[in-house]
Write a structure and sequence with these properties.
- With about 750 residues, this protein is of the alpha/beta class.
- The protein is built from 27 helices and 26 strands.
- The strands form six sheets. It has an eight-stranded mixed beta sheet. The chain has an eight-stranded parallel beta barrel with strand order 19-20-21-22-23-24-25-26, surrounded by eight helices.
- The chain binds phosphoenolpyruvate (PEP) and magnesium ion (MG).
Length: about 750
């Protein structure tokens, strides 16, 4: 305001997680407004069903310079009525005395959504208590830490490294006080301070936020994924033998944990280091050794010792202690597995309509569960393009990832409402929320029925450009048949690695052939692109040994496995050739990789006297996109895997707990690589597809089509909506839109552009 008062109006709590959806700003930053000018519009109904609370704090952020002399509260206010009146304080603090040396500290921002309104207000409130000049700088930009507005304008995000500098008499005290506020992870303090209503905090506790990784809303009951116990013998084979076995298994687990802790994000390292400490816990080892002395086996003794300790921790009401109990059980399994080799895991029982909760769910865990009992998935860790998220989308299961370890404290059987579209998990939802969820589900079902009635037609834009819409498949002919029912015009990628999971040895040629043939038949002669296995990274397989890798995402992946397991590749290629599918190679980075695979395929075809299949290359790395004009000479078609292409372009691990939420395939850097690939394929007259997760994003279709992509391959449940959306597009408009998007500087700007242009369709 004129005169220097800073007023912060925050609409609803945690609404920043909606990234602007539901809000339309009516003013630009820095614009002057007068009383009565609208500032922002929002959809109250939409917000009410999405956010933790509609409580909207109105805060005087520089309370050291102004005083509220009159408040109009506890009654309904009419538009235009004043809410509060301010008076400047005579000797305001904050006008600094700059004497004394500057003190500087490097910090990492902790707040999950960065220094948005509330954390920025907290930082400025802490800074204003000091006379020192305090500034925060990030990437060459600087703002006064005493101004919430200036801090917000820096656009600082969670985990950004920032520099806090103070100069003046109380500089050191200022840094000591302000630094922890910047590093703090929680955001509840200000809510508690400005909004004493117990209601707001209750709502904070009853909902947990994460990243929606597969769409949908589901009401169900919380069920933690517990891996069933490995069986153990009670009797030991001699005290000396069992003692040395226990020591060996502990050492093996320790060295594996230490190796894993050497890479990955900080949270992962912290958890693994805590596991190592628990593994070395003296009391635990003594308890196990005492049992071995009574002629018990090492496995039996270790389980008994760990369970005793875990039960004691579970009785403590503190949530963090209960998490430690979970850690102990995890360790119990690891040591017992190390003692007994790799015995297959028994099946796990889950309740009806289970919302499955786990720190991390592996694709093999999901594959081993009875899908009809599942209503949704929630993971403390992981990113939206992780494999399990892809599987969930294919199964039509809503999934929330990166929801934090708080989800591990939810009791089994608690009723939960998972709104993956909004990225929220509600605990014990009330009737109003359930009603809204049911309404949303009914509206979605009605929309689905409408689009499904047209899904069988060939897909074309409104002005006739043919765009093929294919299904991404995992395994199983049933899935393929269901996809055809939803309008799939073919299979754009069969992720064959799923056939290799949840077992103790790879499938042989005949087993693979039978599986591929059944899928080909279910597709009824439609195009069928089979991708050769892509192990490694977030797709581990227990029975294949990988060399030690500091950074698996940059290690043995996709086609690189051919050097390690040539027989496995040959077996798979033979099965694919016999089944008559096209073949696609993952993680291609060089032309000679395609040439080598083509030579192998040609030799196999000669052996089998069968025609050579079409051979395509996946474009999943910046190098392959940049050299697409060369690769396309060697390949019959290109298919862009935007999940990996985004990970490698933005240098963010797909599974990174903290950063994976930033992976957005609509980033202009990724779009430029898509454009380059599409141009190369179109110039060579060869088909080009996108089969990464972005193809299923409602905002992506106009851009991808506009960039010249002719085929989109997506999880089957998305197909009807996608076909309907494409039918409403005009190719000329899409091309113009794509050109504009390529010139933008962030994924958020691209999304805003598409939303503005296609607001109805989106
Ligand atoms: C991709 O990377 O986009 C892709 C389709 O392959 P995957 O997700 O299986 O790595
Ligand atoms: Mg990939």
């Amino acid at each position: 305001a004129d005169g220097g008062a800073e007023i912060l109006v925050h609409i609803g709590l945690e609404t920043v997680a909606l990234s602007g959806v539901g809000f339309t700003a009516r003013v630009a930053q820095g614009q002057k407004v007068k009383a009565g000018d609208p500032l922002i519009e929002f959809d109250l109904e939409f917000l009410a069903s999405r956010v933790k609370s509609l409580i909207s704090p109105v805060i005087l952020t520089n309370g050291d310079a102004f005083r509220i002399v009159r408040r109009h509260q506890n009654r309904a206010a009419k538009a235009g009525e004043p809410l509060m009146e301010l008076e400047p304080l005579a000797a305001a603090k904050g006008t600094s005395t700059s004497a004394g040396a500057a003190v500087t500290r490097e910090l990492t921002v902790g707040a999950a959504h960065g220094l948005h309104a509330r954390p920025a207000a907290q930082v400025s409130a802490a800074a204003r208590r000091f006379d020192a000049d305090i500034t925060l700088s990030v990437a060459g930009r600087k703002a006064s830490a005493k101004s919430a507005v200036a801090l917000m304008a820096l656009g600082v995000r969670c985990n950004d490294r920032v520099t806090l500098t103070a100069s003046g008499g109380d500089a050191r005290e200022a840094i000591d006080a302000v630094a922890p506020v910047i590093e703090a992870k929680g955001e509840e303090t200000l809510v508690a301070a400005t909004q004493p209503a117990a209601e707001s905090r209750r709502q904070m506790k009853d909902a947990l936020c994460g990243i929606g990784a597969a769409p949908g809303i589901a009401l169900g009951c919380a069920a933690h994924l517990r891996v069933a116990d490995l069986p153990v013998e009670e009797a030991g084979a001699g005290i000396a033998h069992e003692t040395s076995e226990l020591r060996r298994a502990q050492a093996e687990v320790r060295s594996r944990l230490e190796r894993l802790a050497a890479s990955g994000d900080r949270a992962r390292r912290d958890i693994l280091s805590a596991h190592v400490a628990l593994l070395d816990d003296e009391a635990l080892t003594h308890a196990a050794l005492a049992l071995i002395e009574t002629n018990k086996s090492a496995a039996f003794a270790w389980r008994k010792a760990v369970r005793g300790a875990a039960e004691a921790l579970e009785k403590i009401a503190d949530e963090r202690m209960r998490e430690r109990a979970g850690d102990l059980i995890d360790l119990e399994r690891q040591v017992i597995a190390a003692l007994g080799g790799n015995a297959p895991r028994p099946a796990v029982a889950i309740p009806e309509r289970a919302i499955l909760i786990a720190d991390e769910i592996l694709p093999s865990d999901l594959a081993g569960l009875e899908a009809s009992r599942l209503a949704g998935l929630v993971m403390a860790r992981g990113g939206p393009t992780s494999h399990v998220a892809i599987m969930a989308a294919g199964m039509g299961l809503p999934a929330l990832v990166g929801a934090g370890r708080g989800v591990l404290g939810i009791a089994d059987g608690t009723q939960v409402l998972l709104d993956a579209d909004a990225g929220v998990l509600y605990l014990k939802p009330d009737q109003i929320l359930i009603g809204k969820a049911n309404e949303a589900a009914a509206a979605a079902a009605e929309r689905k029925a409408r689009v499904l009635s047209h899904a069988g037609r060939d897909c074309r834009t409104a002005d006739g450009t043919r765009i093929e819409v294919f299904a991404n498949l995992g395994k199983g002919a049933d899935e393929a048949a269901a996809a055809v029912g939803l309008g799939a015009e073919g299979c754009g990628v069969l992720r064959t690695e799923f056939l290799f999971m949840d077992r103790t040895a790879p499938p042989g040629e005949d087993e693979q052939y039978a599986a591929y043939k059944a899928i080909a038949e279910a597709l009824g002669g439609r195009p069928f692109i089979l991708r050769t296995f892509d192990f490694g990274g977030d797709k581990p397989v227990p029975y294949l040994s990988f060399p030690p890798e500091e950074n698996p995402a940059l290690g043995i992946r996709g086609i690189r496995g051919a050097a390690l397991w040539p027989d496995l590749v040959r077996t798979q290629l033979r099965a694919a050739v016999r089944a008559g599918s096209s073949i696609m190679l993952p993680m291609i980075t060089a032309r000679d990789e395609i040439a080598a695979a083509r030579a192998t395929v040609a030799a196999i075809c000669r052996e089998l006297s069968l025609p050579e299949p079409r051979l395509g290359a996946m474009i999943e790395t910046p190098s392959s996109a940049l050299l697409a004009d060369q690769l396309v000479q060697e390949a019959d078609f290109l298919s862009i895997g935007t999940n990996d292409l985004t990970q490698y372009t933005l240098a963010i691990d797909r599974g990174h707990r903290l950063l994976a939420g930033r992976l957005d395939g609509l980033h202009p850097a990724v779009l430029r690589l898509v454009a380059r690939t599409a141009d190369a394929a179109n110039a060579a007259g060869k088909p080009v597809a996108v089969c990464g997760g972005i193809a299923a994003d409602p905002l992506a279709a106009p851009l991808l089509v506009g960039l010249g992509v002719g085929e989109l391959s997506v999880p089957a449940p998305v197909i009807p909506n996608l076909k309907a959306a494409i039918a409403g597009l005009r190719i000329g408009e899409c091309r113009a839109l794509a050109r504009e998007a390529l010139a933008l500087d962030s994924a958020a700007a691209v999304r805003a552009l598409v939303r503005a242009r296609f607001s109805k369709e989106a």
